[in-house]
Amino acid sequence: MQLPISFPKLALGVSASIVLVALSQASTAQAAPQVVELVQVPCQFLGVESDHGFTSTQKSDCETINANTADDRLKDVAPMKLAAGEYVFRVTNKNVPYELGFWIREKGYNWANPLHKLNKLSVSGGGMHEGKTIEYKVTLKPGEYVFSCPLNSTPDYALVVE
Predict the structure, then answer these.
(1) Which of 9, 10, 53, 128 is deepest in the core (most CB within 10 A)?
(2) What are the CA-CA distances from residue 111 to residues 25, 28, 48, 119 (Å)?
């Protein structure tokens, strides 16, 4: 960058420092994570699939419902597709009268495999009571993932990151 010769040396030094600081801050500034809104109702996530109107008062209700219907329902559900990057999954418990959670992980993740805990993505949490929303921050790299709620016994929904 060339500055006019008429700038005094001190001003040139200060101006150059300000420009370098501004460029440095711009290069390290990160875009805000994108938000993915998900709503859980009994036995399923809305938005991923249409509302089937299931009712449940406990986890075992959803275990039975999904054992009987999930395979057929998921045939009509396209994988969610996202670009690689930073995300916040904002998950809401809508009308489920017991505690829910959220679990996103790389496809094939096995919680009992100690190597998977070291080198595969898995983000989860619970404590989502009726009407409550919880956010889960995650960095997604290209690959295949699944997400579900083990406490609501939802199916595993596919997520492809490109």
Answers:
(1) 128
(2) 39, 34, 24, 12
* For the ranges 15-29, 56-70, 104-118, the one whose mean pLDDT is highest: 56-70
Distance of CA 136 to the CA centre of its chain: 6
Cα of 73 vs its chain's centroid, Å:
22
Domain count across the chain: 2
Closest CA to 138 of 153, 118, 124, 117: 124
Give the range of the structural domain holding residue 12, as residue numbers without chain letter: 1-30
* Sign, Cα dihedral of 95, 96, 99, 100: negative
Q: How far apart are CA 119 and CA 105, in angstroms?
A: 11
Give CA–CA dist 132/39, Å, rounded: 10
Question: Residue 46 maps to which CATH number?
Answer: 2.60.40
3-state helix, strand, coil in the chain (%, to 5): 25, 35, 40
44 and 19 in a common domain: no
Q: Are 142 and 69 in the same domain?
A: yes
Confirm if 159 and 79 have CB atoms less than 8 A apart.
Answer: yes
